[in-house]
Amino acid sequence: MRRFIFWILLFIVVLPLASCAAPPTPTPTVDFRATEQAILSHVLATLTAAAPTPTRIPTATPTRTPTIVPSVTPTADFRATESSILSHVFATLTASAPTATPTASPTVTTTPTRFRLNMDAIFPPNPAREVLFDNCMGCHTFLPLMQQKTEEQWRGTLTNHRTRYVSKLPLPYLESLIGYMAEHFNPDKPLPEPPPEADWRTWPAY
Questions:
Q1: Distance (Å, rounded) from C-alpha 34 to C-alpha 38?
Q2: To 10 degrees, what angle do helices 151-164 and 171-184 make?
Q3: What letter would DSSP give residue 123?
Q4: Domain with 158 in it
């Protein structure tokens, strides 16, 4: 019992003393990264101070070669070029080619059919017939004479012609011509036989 009390008292006395004692000095933690960095810096500084300063070789500045930009060749319009070439070739050939002389077609000459016209059968001989040939046949063929008019109708036609066209025809000639026409080219006398190419139905209006 006494021993138990002794240990309790001892514990009570020693424990406060132990808590009042100075704390142990903590062991400092080494920063290996900082140490390594410091060692490397020191070695580098030592090597730099001991090594000779190298002579700096001047660096040659390269001459800059200008970049040549290739010119853009315009795209050729092949259709326009082909058309231009063809036009030039055609113009050259046309200018150099001799002008072809057209071959003249042979003229076919038709020989007219010969016939013998009996003037006395159509125009009976009379002095007035010469007046007819000299003054009327210069403008008319003999077909208008086949109208077979009466004397009054021939007078009106011939007088009108003398007034408008044959003004120099003397009146005696006019009267003889009217009588000749009324005698041989009237409605009661049949027409004379026409030549082969004549047709009394195709007489002109004049």
A1: 6
A2: 140
A3: S
A4: 120-202
